[in-house]
Write a structure and sequence with these properties.
two-stranded antiparallel sheet, alpha+beta, about 160 residues, signal, five-stranded antiparallel sheet, about 20% helix
Length: about 160
């Protein structure tokens, strides 16, 4: 009986030391080209403000608001759930389409370059943006990384 209790305590103690293995990295993957199944969708333009994913025990995946998204579903996955991650919507948009004044090469390097197949890409925060240097952002102790954007076909 004492041995079983020790095993349970050992297991509980080691559970807090386990790090999340989300199975996906921040590298760009074009579905149907680099892996996964092509999603066959089209993408509208982006917006602005902060998107925040709180600390959690798993790799949460949330739907992003995409008005008139048509056949596209945009998802944000928290690939570093041990910290609160917070990025500007503009940075999410840059991952999706390369940015407001993107060159052809920047568009090609973004999720837009994956075409109708969809894909996933880690958000790269523009930490030189003044919003990342405000007292409110710093006091929140959020990290400007750890969010992966996925573009997939919306369920019918």
């Amino acid at each position: 009986m004492l041995f079983n209790a020790a095993l349970v305590l050992c297991a509980l103690g080691s559970a807090s030391l386990v790090t999340a293995a989300c199975g996906e990295k921040a590298d760009r993957v074009c579905f149907g080209k680099d892996g996964g199944q092509a999603q066959d969708g089209t993408l509208p333009n982006g917006t602005a403000a902060f998107w925040t994913m709180p600390r959690d025990v798993d790799c949460a995946e949330w739907m992003l608001p995409v008005p008139s998204g048509g056949t596209v579903l945009a998802l944000a996955k928290h690939i570093n759930p041990r910290v609160t991650s917070s990025v500007l919507f503009a940075d999410i948009a840059n991952a999706i389409d390369g940015g407001e004044f993107a060159t052809t090469a920047q568009k090609q390097a973004s999720l837009l370059g994956c075409g109708r197949g969809g894909g996933m890409f880690g958000v790269k925060a523009n930490t030189t943006h003044p919003a990342y240097n405000t007292a409110a952002y710093k006091e929140g102790k959020a990290s400007p990384d750890g969010i992966l954007i996925k573009i997939v076909r919306a369920p019918v």
